[in-house]
Amino acid sequence: AQRVVLAVQRAHVSGDAPPRREAAARAEAFLAAHDDAPAEVVRAAAQAHYDAAKSAGDASHLERSIELGELLIERAATRAEEAEGRHFVGISLPLDRRRRRRTELRRALELMEREDAEDPDRVRLLGRVLGSLAEELSRGDAEERREARRLFKRRLELLESTGVGDPKGLAMTHGGLGRLAFFDSPRETARAQVHFEKDLAISEAIGDLDGQVQMHSLLGACALDQDAVDEALDHYRRSWTLASTPVGRLFAGAGLIRCHAIRANGDDLGRVAEDLVHVLEEHEIKANDEAVRVLTTALETTQVEEPAASLRALATRLGLDW
Predict the structure, then answer these.
(1) What confidence category does residue 286 fall into, taking pLDDT thresholds of 50, 70 and 90?
(2) Is 70 exceeded by the pLDDT of residue 287?
(3) Positive or negative: CA dihedral 280, 282, 284, 290
(4) Angle at alpha carbon of residue 291, lines to 285 and 293, rounded to 5°
(5) Global pTM value
(6) pLDDT, tens digit, for every residue of 220-250?
């Protein structure tokens, strides 16, 4: 059981897609062989499936994460175990199930606020719940985004004041605060950049590839917002090189398209477009996926006098009339 849990933890921190899929398969094999698997393994399996879904964009992993979260709730012997289950259900439900997602996450928070604030494992779980609810509210209106900022700051203070070892949680909290600042109105690019740089530094220190991919793309966006095209291009190239998931590729590719169009790098623009067409052909990515929307917007705002055939093919794939 401990080997399964450790494998899931290593894959979770790495952010790399293949180890996450392998960890999910390993956890499932253990559950299949042990009907009375301990809660820590059920919890690890739910985490493994959620991580695999985030890396591969496979909805079946999210469905399994929900099932395991519900199993944790059913078997819960403590408030923390019930909170863990509700947390997995809340973060694994489809984004359009907003009311249910928030209900589960708020219930998880209520449960954890009644737990021992001195126990490191419970502090980390409380931090995860705070971060997940904050991320969920970040997609809402202005008032919800203000609450999201308060929750992210509360998690930051919790981790710093208790000194529990949760570097990935700390990185994600800085990433969340950075996104709120960058996508705020008016945009706070300088503040966002500070948080993204802190997230990147931690992600590099712990070997979190997914975190590095995300932060390089976001720092590229900050640089573009400040008209620092060369700096943006460097960040997007790093993100593109590190990305092992289709979503990571799409975000980085969208940035590269914008940079190459500004610099009039026609050949580079064509090669990136060709690679992106392959990504869209090889993976089932929904049209309303955030990465697809970002890529579509990048292409809609790109002005090229004589677009390469691959760029036209990408536009057609995205439903754009060029």
Answers:
(1) low
(2) no
(3) negative
(4) 95
(5) 0.89
(6) 999 999 999 999 999 999 999 999 888 899 9
Instruction: Pull the structure tokens for residue 256.
Output: 């590269």
Q: What are the residue ranges of helices labelled H in the chain?
A: 2-14, 17-33, 39-56, 59-75, 79-92, 98-112, 120-137, 142-162, 167-182, 189-206, 209-225, 229-242, 246-263, 266-282, 290-300, 309-317
Residue type, 132: S
If DSSP codes are grouped into helix, strand and coil, which group holds residue 318?
coil
Give the CB-side neighbour count of residue 138, counting CA atoms within 13 A.
Answer: 22
| Cα distance between residue 123 and residue 298, in whole Å | 40
Lowest mean pLDDT segment, chosen from 75-79, 310-314, 317-321: 317-321
Q: What is the longest distance spanned by two Cα atoms in the chain?
A: 65
Give me the DSSP letters along 26-91. HHHHHHHH-TT--HHHHHHHHHHHHHHHHHH--HHHHHHHHHHHHHHHHH-SSHHHHHHHHHHHHH
SS3 253: helix
Cα–Cα distances in angstroms (integers) from residue 169 to residues 56, 83, 132, 160, 179, in the given order? 21, 17, 10, 11, 15
